[in-house]
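#struct-help
A.M.: can someone run this one for me? Single chain, 91 residues.
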Amino acid sequence: MWDCISCIKWRQVALFAGGVLFGTAGVKILGSEDAKKCYVNCLAAGLRAKDCVMTAATNIQENAEDILAEAKEVNRQRSQEVFEDESEIAE
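D.P.: on it. Structure tokens below:
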């Protein structure tokens, strides 16, 4: 009988018991009202950050569209000038 008790690896038993204790305490802590308030505040901060990023992305997209429109206008004017120069040379 005492041989069986000496065969038990007490370090592993202690680690298992500690894990169970830590897990049980962790569930209680994570489910508390204070933890829920923390979750809500963190999520709210994340949503505010998302709004800021989306606003910046929209501004960048609008600026890029304006730049593209201006570049097309410059190219249209240049092609018109080249066409006028070629018609003057032909005359």
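A.M.: thanks! Residues 33-91 form one domain.
D.P.: also worth noting: DSSP finds three helices and no strands in the chain.
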